[in-house]
Design brief:
The strands form 2 sheets. Strands 2, 4, 5, 6, 9, 10 and 11 form a 7-stranded mixed sheet that branches. Strands 1-3-8-7 form a 4-stranded antiparallel sheet, with no helix packed on it. The chain contains no helices and 11 strands. With about 120 residues, it is mainly β. It has strands at about 1-5, 10, 15-25, 30-40, 45-50, 55-60, 65-70, 75-80, 90-95, 110, 115-120. Helices cover about 0% and strands about 50% of the residues.
Amino acid sequence: VQLVESGGGLVQPGGSLRLSCAASGLTFSSSAVAWARQAPGKGLGLVSIIAGDGRTYYADSMKGRFTISRDNVKNTVYLQMNSLKPEDTAVYYCAMDPDGLGYLVPREYDYWGQGTQVTVSS
C-alpha cells in the first residue's frame, strides 16, 4: 500500500490550497480515506474523512472551510482548503481504512502517507 500526498505549500491567510492523496495497492473505491494533521509541538488531529460510500466527516474547526472529495478512477482523494488561517499550519497526512468506514482516532489507521507541509503565513 502506498499513499502519496501532494499540494502543500506556503499560502497567505485567507488563501486556498488543494491537497491530493494518491493511493495504490488496495481496493481504493471501497476504502475510507482520512486527512489528519500535526502542528508544531502538538499531537496528530483528525481533519476529515471520506468513507467508501462517499459519506464525509469534518472536525468542527474545518466545517465550512474544507471539502473532502474522491475520484475513484484516479484513486485519489482531495482536500480543498479555503479561508486558511495561521493555525492551520501543520503537516497534513492522509490515511486509509480498507474496511471503508474510517476512524475518528488517527492512530487506528494502518496505512499512512509521508505528509505534506502546509504553512499559512503573511
